[in-house]
User: Fold this.
Amino acid sequence: MEAKYHRVLIKMSGEALAGPLNKGIDFGFVEKLCKAVKRCLDLGVQVAIVCGGGNYWRGAQDGGDRMVRTRADYMGMLAITMNCLALLDGLEKQGVEARIQSALGTDKLAEPINRDRAVRHLEKGRVVLFAGGTGEPYFTTDTGAVLRALEVDADVLLLGKNVDAIYSADPKKDPNAKRFSAITYREILEKDLKAMDAAATQLAMDNKLKLHVFGLKDPENILRAVSGEPIGTVVR
Ligand code: UDP
Assistant:
């Protein structure tokens, strides 16, 4: 297997870390994810990771109108940080060196976000886990993932999701949903497709970031995406 990319940023949703449990961390699944990441490094690929926090808390959904939205969103950013600690632990168990850089001030757990330092870690073969999303409320981890992918000049944003590709409608609800193997950002925005939220999509489009969406239920898909196999949907 040969790598198609030199440097990738992988976005994993919080839900993905929960595996079939739906809440919290499925350690067996995290182990599989970390093994797949290790194999990417073995191919010579530099790997940065952004993960979500939805397995613990989503600001608008779980806090809703019961608390100040900004506070609910900070709870989400803390959830992301918890996931990064679990991933750090999982990666170290595979013998992979990793560092967390966080957009939230959590200096006992993580370095602050520093683009140049992150690039140096990547060049040394360390995985960089970007925690805290964008560090701002009212944003999502998808936007954080696009932002960090641009910052570290990743060749591609690998978006691991619960569905295996981008569809014209929810394939669970609509049996006629069309599956796209390739699509443009403009089409995603015009058709209002559920790939990433609109802010993340716009930022990626404006900066011509290549995006590859695929299912993360099989962690081996990370390797398939890294080696350019035609799985999921490629967005340009
Ligand atoms: N969040 C935020 N700003 C960010 C990223 C995340 O406020 O830049 C909060 C927000 O409340 C969000 C929660 O963190 O609902 C968890 O992130 P997200 O929903 O993106 O996680 P995922 O769905 O990818 O697991």
Observations:
- The pocket of uridine-5'-diphosphate is lined by residues 13-15, 52-54, 58-59, 73, 76-77, 79-80, 133-134, 136-137, 139-141, 143-144 (CB under 6 Å).
- Residues 157 and 211 are 5 Å apart (CA to CA).
- Residues 69-93 form the longest helix (25 residues).
